[in-house]
Write a structure and sequence with these properties.
280 residues, alpha+beta, 5 helices
Length: 280
């Protein structure tokens, strides 16, 4: 057998068998060196009598190298696949985190709007309830005024006008209960003490002065122990009074008291008047 019988042809090696191709290249180079040396030797050189044994490449060696290359290639492919999976997982996690944050923001905004709506509904309900209470109070005041008007003539003393003017004055005053006290105001929803008295007596055709000092001397002076419904009460000296109200019977009077109370009914025992004048 020729000494080059086991040398493979110089085909382009496969990528997976790089080491096998290297060994084949070494063997081929060695043979080429021998051939060149023989060609350049003297013409009279003696014939070669010694045979040089070349490395033998078996199919088992090639298979082993191919297997090693395939394993390395497979390991690289697995590493690349794992890296791709990790990258994909990171991208997915980032997207899910953004989605979760957006959902949380939407839920927070919806909760905030719901709370604002609940507060607005509660305020509206409270306003409606207050309006309902005010309406009922007005109805009660109207009913009370009607009853007072009907009973006023019979509750007057013999000196009370037969026309029931005192009842008309008291009815007007009670219709203003709950109105505000504002210094200098003259109605219809805010009064000071003298403007309320002036407006009440105007209902029966009596034109009183505007201020309390003048109202305290506008009629006949009467003692506070001999009061009749419709008498004007005053606090302070006659002619320089600082406050006025109207006696409504049963030891009570109605006045525009002050900014904190507004128009109210009060008991004379708690704040006795200085004097009274009678104009009816």
């Amino acid at each position: 057998m020729s000494h080059t019988a086991h040398i493979p042809s110089h085909r382009k090696p496969r990528r997976g068998g790089s080491r096998s191709a290297l060994r084949a290249g070494v063997a081929g180079g060695f043979l080429s060196t021998i051939a060149v040396a023989g060609a350049s030797g003297p013409a009279h050189a003696e014939p070669v009598t010694e045979t040089i044994e070349m490395p033998v490449l078996t199919s088992a060696d090639l298979s082993a190298h191919v297997a090693q290359a395939a394993a390395a290639t497979q390991e690289i492919a697995l590493d690349a696949e794992l890296q791709a999976q990790e990258d994909a997982a990171a991208v997915k996690a980032s997207k899910e985190a953004k989605k979760a944050k957006a959902e949380a923001d939407r839920e927070a905004e919806a909760k905030k709007k719901a709370e604002e709506k609940a507060r607005a509904d509660a305020e509206a309900a409270e306003a409606a309830a207050a309006q309902e209470r005010a309406s009922r109070s007005t109805e009660r005041t109207t009913l009370s005024t009607t009853a007072s008007t009907a009973s006023a003539p019979s509750s007057q003393t013999a000196s009370a006008p037969a026309s029931g003017s005192a009842g008309t004055v008291v009815a007007f005053l009670k219709a203003q209960l709950g109105d505000a006290y504002v210094m200098g105001a003259s109605g219809p929803n805010a009064w000071d003490c003298s403007s309320l008295v002036q407006a009440a007596f105007r209902q029966v055709g009596i034109d009183l002065p505007r201020v309390s000092q003048d109202q305290s001397v506008a009629g006949t002076q009467v003692g506070t122990s001999n009061l009749q419904v419709g008498d004007i009460l005053y606090w302070g000296a006659a002619g320089s009074a600082y406050h006025v109200g109207v006696y409504i019977g049963d030891g009570k009077y109605l006045d525009a008291a002050n900014p904190s109370k507004g128009v109210v009914i009060q008991d004379l025992s708690g704040y006795p008047a200085t004097g009274a004048v009678r104009v009816l």
